[in-house]
Amino acid sequence: xxxxxxxxxxxxxxxxxxxxxxxxxxxxxxxxxxxxxxxxxxxxxxxxxxxxxxxxxxxxxxxxxxxxxxxxxxxxxxxxxxxxxxxxxxxxxxxxxxxxxxxxxxxxxxxxxxxxxxxxxxxxxxxxxxxxxxxxxxxxxxxxxxxxxxxxxxxxxxxxxxxxxxxx
Length: 168
Description:
Oligomer: single chain
Order of helices and strands: EHEEEHEEEHHE
């Protein structure tokens, strides 16, 4: 069975943010046909899109999976639910958010999921931690590496390494 190198973004800006990140990371370890490989440091970041909300803690988790993007999305939604996500306002505050950012080399889209994430190259809060663990990964649409995307990102939001740690 073919496996894919996949990068997930995880974030929280409600309650005990570090606890939510660690709970989500622990839940990701239990996803079927998926192995957690690595994670970035945790970064405290300004909110993106709707900026009138608390700061986020964000990190990137690398996994290997044989799941398709829709199958992985279903598993991620279950992880979010088990981790305690209750808020559903688009771009609003949330206990946990897990996004599929990139399947190495794959371009995929259906009515539920788009890979790579359509906003990936615009989000400094994603690119800074992503660059930490996988600077040479190539975005399959732009042809640019994560390092190049991070260097050219126009997002001016604050992204600062945090003292929080994810224990995988």
